[in-house]
Amino acid sequence: MLLHKGETLFRQGELGPLYRINSGMLKIIRLHEDGSPIVMNIITAGETIPHHSLITQQAYHGTAVALVTCDIEVLPSQEWYQTLENHPEKCRDIALLLQNKLRMMQQRIDQLTQAAPAAKLHKLEQWFDEHISPATLSDVLTQDEIGQLIGLRRETVNRLMRAKADKRKESGASV
Questions:
Q1: Less packed terminus of the chain by CB within 10 Å, N or C?
Q2: Percent of the chain that is helix, strand, coil (3-state, to 5)
Q3: Where do transmembrane segments lie in this chain (predicted)?
């Protein structure tokens, strides 16, 4: 199935199938009790989601929204869990999927623990570039969402992005 930028794959609290992301990128948004959204996770090509339901089914923890056009394979829950029951060796595949996700989360923690705000933004831009180039971070996320991912206020993200754009203009003008 194709999911286009801005379209929703599933919603927080629903129960449904698992999905394999063949190409593209999704954001997982969680709504707080007051209705405010926060970006909880970024899903990239090769992942099977939701991670918390790979062994046993649970309601979706957040809402999945396409950041770019995605090619997604639906994995019916009944078949998925029956395959695991009949072929326990498949659990190793799940362990490898989760290991890869943990490694990605370690990269995200590295982004968050950078001391300088500009370094946090730079690390996040580098990571996104690996997955969505030639699109850029600001092509797929709002400044507020970028700030949520790296622990900065939207205003700080705005200031850093403006300074970076000004620096590019200056270096381009002096050539």
A1: C
A2: 50, 20, 30
A3: none
What pLDDT does 13 receive? 96
- What sign for the dihedral angle of Cα 91, 62, 47, 49? positive
Looking at 113-153, list the stretches that DSSP marks H as alpha helix, in order from N- to C-terminal side: 117-132, 137-140, 143-150
- Nearest Cα residue to 118 out of 165, 163, 73: 163
Q: 141 vs 18, 33, 84, CA distance in Å?
A: 24, 23, 36
Q: H or E segment at 9?
A: strand 8-10
Q: Does an H or E element contain 163, and which?
A: helix 154-173
Closest CA to 111 of 67, 149, 140: 149
Residue 151 has pLDDT above 60, yes or no: yes
Q: In what order do the strands lie in the sheet with 70-75?
A: 2-3, 70-75, 18-23, 48-49
Query: pTM score, two decimals?
Result: 0.86
Half-sphere exposure of 90 toward its Cβ, with a 13 Å CA cutoff? 12
Average pLDDT of the residues of the chain: 92
CB atoms within 10 A of CB 132: 18
